[in-house]
Inverse folding.
């Protein structure tokens, strides 16, 4: 099983090594939990039944003073364990961002791109952002974009609207976009985009009130019917927890309470992620 | 008068578990040089606990099972909301309530350099919301 959405922001070993890491966690990402040894990360995966986790940095140094983990930190963690799959992040408005992305993929071994328009303070339609999408498409990597609400302070909601990415999604049909957090509260819009565009996927890392189980029960049975997931989006959704904003085990448990078939769950928890992460992204489509 | 305080880190490995820390407390008492006094043990976390009971696996299981029966995960708790100081939701009221009911500290007398306790009394660190690295404190006060 793969967790497609985690943030390495509370790793004790990195906090001891990188001077700005604590400020990043407390002020930029804004999380108050204790820093934990790397071992805790693996144990959290173990108790949730997760084999591998995608680590997501955000290069928001220009907009926020520090990045929310760096490509180097992610690569360092990945070099230490094959249970981690590292994504890169670049600032689309920064000179040389395309070359930086190529370096991260070819030299550092990272396997996807993470962008967060609200935290990085750029518009998804910016021509410089389009240049980065083009580079990502040529590298044949997936791009996971933050959509929906963010808990990070001073991030505008409007830059999280999933439809802001529609032009890019149409312009780069060979580039797979994963809309993070199911774009909550714009769940219908995100659903429509995943239904309409073959290159749009959704991750389940959404929790904004109540408990994970209660939130999933509402979003995935009342906000949209569970049947949409089971029948139409079974190949377009990947599991994501958003750890450490929530423990992975609680999100896995919540997903399991939806009553989805085993085939659908296997796709969400494993197969679709594997397909998106395939070195050659032209892996065969799942059918049925 | 001797006063010694140790902060002990403990990596828990499961969502819930009972970890026998009696040997570690006895070691701290032995190392302290205190002959007559008291030892206090305290967890620093509100979703963990410290309790004393007979040290056998069936009781460890019963405590965790019946605490979960008293405070089910799916109960309608108020503590299921965004906590701005944490930057995340709090939704683990059940684990906090287990900590409250089970307690977070224990105290034993020290006599002739040894803990005075019943032969079956075992000191447990209780994890209710792991796995996490936890810290508990041993404070020893007394005469050398």
């Amino acid at each position: 099983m793969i967790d497609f959405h985690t943030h390495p922001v509370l790793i004790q070993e990195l906090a001891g090594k990188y001077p700005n890491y604590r400020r990043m966690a407390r002020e930029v990402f804004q999380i108050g939990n204790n820093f934990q040894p790397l071992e805790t990360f693996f144990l959290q995966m173990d108790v949730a039944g997760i084999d591998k986790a995608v680590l997501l940095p955000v290069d928001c140094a220009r907009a926020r003073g520090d990045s929310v983990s760096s490509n180097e930190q992610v690569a360092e963690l990945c070099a230490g364990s094959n249970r981690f799959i590292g994504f890169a992040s670049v600032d689309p408005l920064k000179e040389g961002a395309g070359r930086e992305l190529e370096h991260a993929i070819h030299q550092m071994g990272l396997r996807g791109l993470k962008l967060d328009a609200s935290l990085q303070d750029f518009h998804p339609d910016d021509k410089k952002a389009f240049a980065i999408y083009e580079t990502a498409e040529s590298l044949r990597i997936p791009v996971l974009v933050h959509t929906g609400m963010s808990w990070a302070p001073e991030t505008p909601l409007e830059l999280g609207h999933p439809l802001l990415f529609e032009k890019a999604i149409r312009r780069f049909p060979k580039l797979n976009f994963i809309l993070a957090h199911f774009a909550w509260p714009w769940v219908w819009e995100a659903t429509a985009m995943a239904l309409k565009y073959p290159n749009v996927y959704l991750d389940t890392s959404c929790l904004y009130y109540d408990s994970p189980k209660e939130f999933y029960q509402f979003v995935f049975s009342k906000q949209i019917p569970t049947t949409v997931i089971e029948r139409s989006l079974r190949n377009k959704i990947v599991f994501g927890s958003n750890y450490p904003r929530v423990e992975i085990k609680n999100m896995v448990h919540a997903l399991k309470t939806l009553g989805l078939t085993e085939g659908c769950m296997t796709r969400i928890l494993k197969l679709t992620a594997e397909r998106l992460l395939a070195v050659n992204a032209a892996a065969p489509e799942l059918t049925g | 008068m001797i006063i010694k305080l140790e902060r002990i880190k403990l990596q828990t490995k499961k969502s819930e578990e009972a970890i026998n820390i009696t040997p570690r407390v006895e070691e701290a008492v032995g190392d302290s040089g205190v002959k007559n006094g008291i030892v206090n043990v305290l967890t620093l976390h509100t979703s963990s606990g410290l309790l004393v009971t007979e040290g056998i696996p069936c009781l460890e299981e019963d405590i965790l099972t019946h605490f979960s029966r008293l405070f089910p995960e799916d109960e309608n708790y108020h503590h299921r909301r965004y906590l701005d100081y944490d930057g995340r939701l709090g939704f683990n009221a059940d684990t906090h309530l287990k900590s409250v009911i089970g307690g977070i500290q224990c105290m034993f007398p020290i006599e002739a350099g040894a803990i005075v306790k019943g032969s079956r009394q075992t000191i447990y660190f209780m994890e209710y919301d792991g796995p996490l690295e936890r810290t508990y404190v041993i404070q020893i006060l007394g005469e050398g």
Q: What stands out?
A: The radius of gyration of chain A is 17 Å. The CA atoms of residues 12 and 37 of chain A lie 5 Å apart. The longest helix of chain A spans residues 262-277.
